[in-house]
Every structure is written in C-alpha cells, then in structure tokens.
Amino acid sequence: MATPSSGTSRRLVQYVIVRSDLIHTLSWPLGAVITQACHAATAAIHLHYSDPETQEYLAELDSMHKVVLQAPDEASLNTLSSALREKDIAHKLWMEQPENIPTCLALKPYPKETVQPFLKKFKLFK
C-alpha cells in the first residue's frame, strides 16, 4: 500500500472504466450505462470498505475524486481486469445480470500514481 510522504497530502482517486461500445455500437441508453458505473463504484467501495485508503477516501465525502475512463469493448475490459488482478490491484468487474455481460469495472480508491500505469491507454469517457 502506498503511503503519503511526510508533510504532504495525497489525492485518492476512484477510477471507473466503462465500455464505450455499449452506447456507440450496442445502442444502450445513456442512463443504463451510467447505472452500470454506479453499481461498479458502489460495489468496489463495499468490497473494500475496511481498507484504510477507502476509509480515508470516504472521510472526505464532499471532495471525493472519481475519474471515468472508456474501454472500447468487452475484450479490453476483461484484459484490464486480468492485468489488475495479476498486480493485486483491488477492483470490481461489474457483470450485468442475468445476461452475465461485463459492462465496467471500478477500482477501490488509490493514490493516482499507484494505478496510473495500468490505465494510461484509456481515455476519458465521452
């Protein structure tokens, strides 16, 4: 776990990565896609609720910082999830039920510099 440098504060960020093809190719309604991101973010917080970084993030309720990125398709989202799992980066891959379709994933809150190397190829969601 990353720790802050003495005397400096760090910004914890929760990243959410959403499949952009759900809107642009599969014609899902925007509201349905936003709902998927909300589910994933909530689930990641719930699963890692006792984590010290999650608690620190939640303690600053009015200044939480999230970044929503886009993955082009299901394969890229699954590849990212596998890479994060291999590096022990805590996250939740959200599966829409009952179809069992991966729609997005959310990381628990991390210092940006801890997870940025895994996310640099993903652009802000549009």
Report on the structure:
This protein has helices at residues 21-24, 30-47, 52-59, 74-86, 112-119; strands spanning 12-19, 66-71, 91-96, 101-107, 110-111, 123-124. It is α+β, with helices and mostly antiparallel strands and 126 residues long. The chain has one domain: Bit1 (3-Layer(aba) Sandwich), CATH 3.40.1490.10. Strands 1, 2, 3, 4, 5 and 6 form a six-stranded mixed β-sheet that branches. Strand 3 (91-96) and strand 4 (101-107) form a beta hairpin. Residues 1-8 have low confidence and may be disordered.
* Distance, first to last CA: 31 Å
Question: What is the CATH superfamily classification?
Answer: Bit1
Q: Compute the number of strand runs.
A: 6
CATH topology: Bit1
Largest sheet: 6 strands, mixed
SSE ordering: EHHHEHEEEHE
Top CATH class: Alpha Beta
Q: Give the helix tally.
A: 5
Number of domains: 1
The CATH architecture term is: 3-Layer(aba) Sandwich
Give the low-pLDDT segments.
Answer: 1-8
The general outline is globular
Question: If you average the pLDDT, what whole number results?
Answer: 93
Beta percentage is 15-25%
Structural class: alpha+beta
What share of residues is helical?
40-55%
- What is the CA-based Rg, rounded? 14 Å
Pfam families: PTH2 (PF01981)
Protein name: peptidyl-tRNA hydrolase
Organism: Carassius auratus
GO molecular function: peptidyl-tRNA hydrolase activity
